[in-house]
Amino acid sequence: MSAEGPNGTRVQAVILLFASSLTIMSGAALAAALPALQDHFSDVANVEILSRLVLTVPALFIVATSPLAGFIVDRWGRKRILLLTTALFCVGGTSGFFVDTLIDILISRAVLGIAVAGIMTASTTLIADYFTGESRNRLMGMQAAWMGLGGMVYVAAGGLLSDLNWRAPFLIYASAMIVIPFMIAAIHEPLAASSHHGSVDSSPTGRLALSIAAAAYGLTFANMLAFFLIPVQLAFHLRDLLGASATESGLAIAFANLANGFIAVAYQRIKRRLSYESIFVVGFLLMGAGFAMIYAAATYSAVLLAMAFCGTGTGLILPNAAVWLVTSMPASVRGRAVGGLTTSFFLGQFFSPFASQLVNERFGLDAAFGFAGLAMVLIALVFTVRAIVRRLPGAASRD
């Protein structure tokens, strides 16, 4: 199957995939630097939670602004929002290298969050606009893959740079400047909503579309609430358990993103054989197994194996939720639908450190990973029971 859809080109696909990979950088580039950053600001009150907010405060502003970004993308155009927010991403991201206080860093991270909301919403909407059918499935899987592999590169680079100086990883955000000239030259506004290939995609409408949107949002939130334990807490867990360095922690976190990327590349082929429901079951079971392995791990190699399970699960869940959603929505409201998905994605990221810290303070950090694994298995069980009920005599059968 060609990577090109009715209107999309390979060049446009690569640009949008690269833009999508930037969004995961909002947290990934600094994950391994958190312990050193916390030590640097050790005299600041509540530094334990504030240092983790450096990683997740962008998610708060992504959550707050993604619905507005979706509305603007539908009303004012995809390209101009993509360009503006990519430039803002460079400014907000690199500012952390230059400012001197923890509060100023948090402010710069808020600016970064606003930028990510626009990039994520515009790039995902453009992929859905430019491509249809199996081409869209492939690009959605590739989007998750680029985010996963981008996360691997950014986490690994951040770990290496943070061993030199905790500020150095902030400079990674300047890489967004590379793609702006290509956006100007190759990205164009898609066709009007009324001509968005309605004959190609059989989109549900009304109540069914709303139920699909609600399910996609909820599953994406749950996935990220659990998965973001890895960049937020794994460096601390490995330091306490094994005395791991920032580089070792960064490589472990990157391994999860590597697994994420590899499986997401195969999403199109997997979707040919499995329903949305079945893919969710497999994805959440893999994540549950991975978190259970982190809970029980006593060696670095065991943690790496757990990262492979967690990354593979997420690499199935995220593109599956995105394809399910965009296929159900008409082009005229697709930006708003994707804005809601972006909100769910980063809302899970934002709440993850609070949830894990509450469990950590009462039961220990390893228990946070154990509880996350149990929750993932329960979600898979719900889908399994639902599938069994739907196959009973007299039950309606829908994918």
Please render the helix and strand layout as text.
Blueprint: H1 10-28, H2 34-40, H3 47-76, H4 78-98, H5 102-130, H6 133-164, H7 180-186, H8 206-227, H9 229-242, H10 246-265, H11 267-273, H12 276-296, H13 300-328, H14 334-363, H15 365-390
Helix pairs in contact: 1-5, 1-6, 2-3, 3-4, 3-5, 3-14, 4-5, 5-6, 5-14, 6-10, 6-11, 6-13, 8-13, 8-14, 9-10, 10-13, 12-13, 12-15, 14-15
Please state the overall shape, judged from the principal axes of the Cα atoms: globular
| CATH H level, superfamily name | MFS general substrate transporter like domains
Structural class given helices, strands, pairing?
Answer: mainly alpha
Looking at how many chains there are and whether they match, the oligomeric state comes to single chain
Note the gap between the termini. 23 Å
**Any low-confidence stretches, pLDDT <50, length ≥5?**
1-5, 192-202
Number of domains: 1
**Which CATH architecture is right?**
Up-down Bundle
* CATH class label: Mainly Alpha
Number of strands: 0
What helical percentage do the residues reach? over 70%
CATH topology: Growth Hormone, Chain: A
The major beta sheet can be summarized as:
none
**N-to-C series of helices and strands:** HHHHHHHHHHHHHHH
Instruction: Report the average pLDDT across residues.
Output: 84
Hey, roughly how much beta strand do the residues contain?
A: under 5%
Q: What is Rg?
A: 20 Å
